Amino acid sequence: MSSESCLFCRIVRGEIPARLVAETDRAIAFRDINPQAPVHVLVIPRRHVASLAEATDGEELGALVLLAARVAREEGLEAGGWRTVINTGADGGQTVHHLHLHVLGGRAMRWPPG
Ligand code: 5GP
Ligand code: ZN
Predict the structure, then answer these.
(1) Which of 96, 98, 103 to mutate to test ligand 1, by most ligand atoms within 8 A of the CB atom?
(2) Does the model's pTM come out above 0.85?
(3) Is the peptide bond before 45 cis (omega within 30 degrees of 0)?
(4) In the chain, pLDDT over 70 holds for what percent of residues?
């Protein structure tokens, strides 16, 4: 998958609209189009990285995780808690092949996930 045709790269470039909630020089956060909880935000690197399996830049990953925590705070999830998820590969349930971190909150999460 080239970054040219990658859905999330297209969102980063502004070619596909998204409901942005936060951005930094390295990452952006926007609402999931098919939310699985009252708050469901995706945090992605601006740079194309296909999945966590391909990730090599620890600073970039740190920036993603910290932005996820900032989004959770700004979405009012701090008191109740929230869940972060990174799906990787087929068994992980990854459907978009640009690394993304889900931030889910606003309801009690169950365990184990499906
Ligand atoms: P995955 O299953 O790869 O972990 O998560 C991909 C997520 O991207 C899904 O939760 C899906 O709803 C979301 N998604 C797919 N296409 C779009 C889109 O065009 N816009 C937004 N905002 N989210 C999308
Ligand atoms: Zn991409």
Answers:
(1) 96
(2) yes
(3) no
(4) 100
